Every structure is written in C-alpha cells, then in structure tokens.
Amino acid sequence: MRSQPADPVEGTPKPQPSVAHPARRPYPPRRAWLVGACLWPAFLSAGLATMIFFSGIDPETLRLQTLPDWEISRTAGYSIGFLMFWAVAGFSSAVSVLLARAPCRDTGKGSS
Amino acid sequence: MSARPHKADPGEASAPDSMYAAHEKIHPREIKGRYQTVRKIMVFLLLGLFYVLPWVRIGGEPAVLFDLPARQFHILGLTFWPQDFFYLTLLLVICALALFFVTSLAGRVWCGYACPQTVWTEVFLWMEHWTEGKRAKRMKLDRSPWNVEKILRKGSKQVLWIVFSLWTGFTFVGFFSPIDDLLMRAASFQLGPWETFWSLFYGFATYFNAGFMREQVCLYMCPYARFQGAMFDRETLIISYDEERGEPRGGRKRGVDPREKGLGDCIDCNLCVQVCPTGIDIRDGLQYECIACGACIDACDSVMDKMDYPRGLVRYTTENALEGRPSRVIRPRTIIYTVLLLALVTAGATGLAMREPVRLDILTDRNTLYRETGDGLIENSYSFKLTNMSGEPHTYGFSVEGPAGVRIETQPREVRLAAGETRTIPARIQLDPDATDKIGGVDVTVTVESLDGTDITGSETTRFRTPVGR
C-alpha cells in the first residue's frame, strides 16, 4: 500500500480546522486496494468454509476415496482445502470487482 | 455512529486518477494517561495469553491444543470432537452477541482495547518508538535522506519487527501442534512443510498488518467497523469533544481568562490529533475511523491539567449526556442482549455438563427388511457406529428396550474402544412378532453403556421392521 510516492510529511498538522488527513478518500480504487478487496473477503470466507467443511469431512476419508496411493497428511489436507477455498472465493471476488467497475470505453475523442 | 465515509471534495473526486491520494503515514504521538495505562495492561494480558497459553500444561497434557491432525480439540481438560461442532458454533454465536452487547453499552471498546489488530499494532509502535524515537524524531527521520543513522535505526526496527513476527507465527502454529516438540524440531530445521508455511504465513500477516497496514485495516478491511454503527444508540458510550465548552477554540497564554477573550476551553494545541492512531480530529464529531482508544482523552486531560481547567473536554460520554439528558444502562436493547446471552450460555453450559462422551449411530441394513429365524422370531440387521469421545479407553455393552421379549446381539458382545476411536459393529435385534400388533414396524431404543463402572451411557432409537399384514 505504499507504492505511490508519499506527500512530504509535515512537522505538525496544519492548523486548518477539521482536516486531520485531507488525503483520505473513501473506497480508493487503486490497484493494490483492488487486489486486497479480492483477497481479503475471500480469506475470511475460506476460513469459514474450511471450518464448516472439515468439521464434517475428514480429509483422510477424502484421500482414501480419491487418491489412496498418495501420501497426504491431514495437515496437508486442511491446508490444501483452505487454499482451494481461498482461490475459489478470490476468483469470485475478482469477477465481482471486475463487473462492479464501470465498463471502460475506448471513446477516443468522444466517438459515441 | 454512522459508517458514512468522509464527503469527498467534488472537484478532486471527478478526476479519476486522483480519487485516492497517496496514503500518508500516521505517526501517533506517544501519550501517557488513564486510558493508555488500561490499553497497556490489555496488551500484556492478551498477548501474554497468546504467547504463554501454548506452553501451559495441565497434568502433562497441553492446556490448549487444537490437534487438527488427530481431529480433536483439547481445551482445559475437555476434549472436543468433530461431532461437537455444535459447541463451536454456539461459542461463535455467543462471542458475536457479546460483542454486540458490549458495543451497544460501551461503543467500540473492543476496537480500542482488545482487537488483535490494535493490540499488535501497539506493540509494533513501541518497537518503532524504541528504535526511531519520538514522533517528531520519527517524522524527521522519514524525511531525511538515507544515511548511516537512518539505516541503523530503520534496520534495527525491521530486525525487531521480523523477529517478533516470526515468533508470533511460530506461537500460532503452537496452538495446533505441541509447542515444545515444535520448538525442538524448529531448532533442528525439521519442521514439516505445512508447519513452516503456516508459521511464516501468520508471521507475515502480523508484520504486514501491525507494521504497515495499521489503521488502514480498521478503515478499509474491518467488517465490524462498518456495521458497528447499527448497535449504537443515544445511550452508547462514545468518545466526544464537548463542543459547547471548547468552542470557539484558540491559543491563549496560561492564566488568561478565556471568557474575557471570548474563547472556549479548547486551546487548539492539536495534541488530540497528533496522538490519534487513525489520524482523525475528534473535534469534528464522531467518525467511523475512531477506534475509541481514548488517546485523545488522555492527551486533552494532560493539557487541561496544565491549563488548570477541569478535565473532560474530550471524554467518554453518551449523546444523551452531552445534551444534558440522563443516560440509561438498562434499556430494551441491553435487556434483549442480556436475556439472549444468558439463555445461550446456560444452554451451552448445560449441554457441556450433560455431554456423554460416547456416541452411537445406528444404520439399518438396506438389503433385507427383516428375516425370520428358525424359532419364529423376526430379526433385523443393523450397523452400529460407536465413537468413544472420552480421553480414556472404555469397554461398552449394548441393551435394547421395546416390546416384550426384544433381544439384541452384537459382534462382539463387548467392545473395547481406545480414546477417540470409532468402530462399526454389526448387530441384530430379534423380536417375537406376537409381542407387537403394530403393522410394518415398531420403535426400539438401543442403549450403550460402559462396563468398567464409569457410568457412561448413550442411547439411540431406531425402527424395527416387522412383516406387513400379520
């Protein structure tokens, strides 16, 4: 979140009333922020999904039914499950973010 | 408190590239005072719990261990299995309700005093303070070009931060795997790949969130910050600037009567802004950025003391109190939360106290409905799935209740299960068809009982199928 050059920091806040941080705006659609907006809610959802899913299903049973020849420990099972949930939820958030943004029109000099 | 964001300046907001100006690093000024002492105590209490708990053992067993590989949670001598998921859900619901309750009573005290984000940020700020100095010095250091001093100071801060984060990540994994064993293996570089991954992951999250993101987590990432306003009412404790007393603000010499100069009590020293960890001016009124940490109260109180004015120009108060009306603690909202909380806690505690550490699931044989034995009895076949949910091995036997003469046979007759073991046991129940006049089936109750004098019982009712039309 520090990719852009920061404004020079002033020694004391300006005596202007009511503006502690004039720079702050709501919902900054910067690229880093958008990446966060995809990953962070997905992280929360993945945590919840992992908890509910694995409380009912033992990764060991899953392994025996699908890949019995592979050595996958339960720890690995939970971890892979979590990362998969995260990836899926992250993808969903990414599509949401993409669709929520106004379509970018290459209007050039106002062609439409 | 509303979660409404700041009004954007229309001129700047219309330019797409400048909708968000670069984030300005906030350098909160350090301040001493009542609320900061409470915060410090909370930091030691909560982080103390986090860092010490994995090491505590009760009777040789870890006091708290979420043993995911064995699919069991050990919490203070109690063992929980995946079948106990209900209790975890209940606990989460209770925690959420308790948070709502506290919010409606005392506002965002969770944010200011107990949220892991705030608590770890506080520690990271201490380390920044130790290495880079006080606020003015830190700002000067940030502005100054890279020289030996800056490299040394910033470098040692990073070293402290990274070591602390690594230890935090390691401790986190210690909640899931016995920590002393983990430390031994870490010391000889024999941690498993996932243990390494998760301790680095958690360590990095701590470093990033407490070192760099800080107040931005509260502003942009925290869902609670967005909806906590819904729990607020006019009786909720908030941090507020007494505008009537403070305005018009302005500088003055000590000992000058402000009323003569037409001034309020606020000397406009900006200290409340400088100490704010989220960089707001509390004098603008309640804002969703405010995490109710009380730093501005302590700052303002110290200034009021110096000026010989009464304390409390910025204080914890309620909207009603500010307008001179009485504040009530007991009101419909708090009563509803209290009743709900008490009911849930009682239900959970009763459930825990009455929890039998054995679980019986009965699966009926789907291939044959019933069978007639040589001596004219009707027989049904079942699979019993028996789980020993206690921490010790036990031997169990079965009995059945139902119409007169009902009999049960299991293979074997007595089952010995290790702690946490689940086994499927074939079983047959027999009944004299003349004992029941029900058509098609009758309910029977199977009871499992420990045979070693420990008095553990569990029962399950199932359907006994009889021939139709007899």
Automatic annotation (TrEMBL), chain A:
Keyword annotations: Membrane, Transmembrane, Transmembrane helix
Protein name, per record: Transmembrane protein
Residue intervals passing through the bilayer: 32-57, 77-100
Keyword Transmembrane helix attached: yes
Top-rank taxon: Bacteria
Region Disordered: start-end pairs: 1-25
From TrEMBL, chain B:
Keywords tagged on the record: 4Fe-4S, Electron transport, Iron, Iron-sulfur, Membrane, Metal-binding, Transmembrane, Transmembrane helix, Transport
Matches recorded under Pfam families: Fer4_18 (PF13746), Fer4_5 (PF12801), FixG_C (PF11614)
Domain 4Fe-4S ferredoxin-type, first and last residues per copy: 252-285
Residues passing through the membrane, by range: 41-58, 85-106, 159-176, 196-213, 335-354
InterPro entries: 4Fe4S_Fe-S-bd (IPR017896), 4Fe4S_Fe_S_CS (IPR017900), Cyt_c_oxidase_cbb3_FixG (IPR014116), Electron_Trans/Redox (IPR051684), FixG_C (IPR032879), Ig-like_fold (IPR013783)
Entry annotated with the keyword Membrane: yes
Keyword Membrane: yes
Alphabetized NCBIfam families for the sequence: ccoG_rdxA_fixG
PANTHER family: FERREDOXIN-TYPE PROTEIN NAPH
Protein name: Cytochrome c oxidase accessory protein CcoG
Species this protein is from: Spiribacter onubensis
